[in-house]
């Protein structure tokens, strides 16, 4: 944040007093020197230096090319997300915040960087921060109207970094959404399997209860078996016993 502030203030305020401008340049140079020392030490301690360079190409580019140095801050958000892939369920809940912060930081830094290198060129079409921000948005969304474009080599390098960063953000969102849908489908299948198992167990329990009930209470005599007993109680003339008694 200190580096971002020291880098942004002189660009956003071209009329900044020389004293403050020198202080900002000193801060940015000091932080750049610390990052360079860190990179050299990591390179010296790496087991496979070629593999280290392959992984750290972006860090090397931000050290060698001054306009790309602010974009190093964008890697912080990617690092947080990458280190939390093992607990993606919790990270997914904060994905919106991560993506929003990373996108805003990427757009802000790319706008500052492109404005810093372009407005020094007499033929530049990007001369204000508003133009730079509009260019960053149209570039990262792959719209590219073409009304604003970099005219310097440094500006084109910043455009490449912005395009790659936009693709990385889109890939992050797509991968996380795909993982979320996959987990949802897995949960639905697990719930369906549990429901099926519970229904099978309940059906088996009902069957056992029926068998137990049938064993304890046999079925009552049918109406055809009770018919002869009713006929024997009746009189020979077919009248009920109470009717004969009255006669």
Automatic annotation (TrEMBL):
Compartment(s): Membrane
Listed GO MF terms: voltage-gated potassium channel activity
Assigned GO CC terms: voltage-gated potassium channel complex
Domain Potassium channel, chain residue ranges per copy: 108-182
GO terms of biological process kind: action potential
Transmembrane regions listed in the UniProt entry: 26-45, 57-81, 93-114, 157-181
Keyword DNA damage: no
Matches recorded under SUPFAM superfamilies: Voltage-gated potassium channels
Main localization (coarse): membrane
Protein name as annotated: Potassium channel domain-containing protein
Protein source organism: Streptomyces malaysiense
């Amino acid at each position: 944040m200190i580096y971002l502030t020291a880098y942004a203030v002189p660009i956003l305020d071209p009329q900044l007093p020389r004293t403050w401008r020198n202080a900002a340049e000193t801060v940015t140079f000091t932080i750049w020197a610390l990052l360079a020392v860190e990179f050299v030490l990591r390179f010296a301690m790496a087991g496979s230096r070629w593999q280290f360079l392959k992984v750290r190409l972006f860090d090397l580019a931000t050290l060698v090319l001054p306009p790309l140095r602010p974009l190093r801050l964008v890697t912080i958000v990617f690092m947080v997300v990458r280190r939390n892939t093992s607990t993606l369920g919790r990270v997914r809940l904060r994905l919106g915040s991560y993506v929003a912060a990373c996108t805003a930081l990427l757009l802000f830094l790319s706008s500052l960087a492109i404005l810093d290198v372009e407005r020094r060129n007499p033929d530049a079409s990007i001369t204000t921060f508003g133009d730079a921000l509009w260019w960053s948005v149209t570039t990262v969304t792959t719209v590219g109207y073409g009304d604003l474009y970099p005219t310097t080599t440094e500006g084109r390098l910043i455009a490449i970094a912005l395009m790659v960063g936009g693709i990385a953000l889109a890939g992050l969102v797509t991968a996380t959404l795909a993982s979320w849908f996959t987990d949802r489908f897995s949960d639905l299948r697990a719930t369906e399997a549990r429901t099926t198992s519970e229904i099978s167990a309940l059906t088996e329990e009902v069957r056992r209860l029926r068998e137990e009930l049938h064993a304890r209470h046999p079925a009552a005599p049918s109406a055809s078996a009770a018919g002869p007993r009713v006929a024997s109680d009746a009189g020979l003339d077919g009248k009920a016993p109470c009717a004969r008694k009255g006669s």
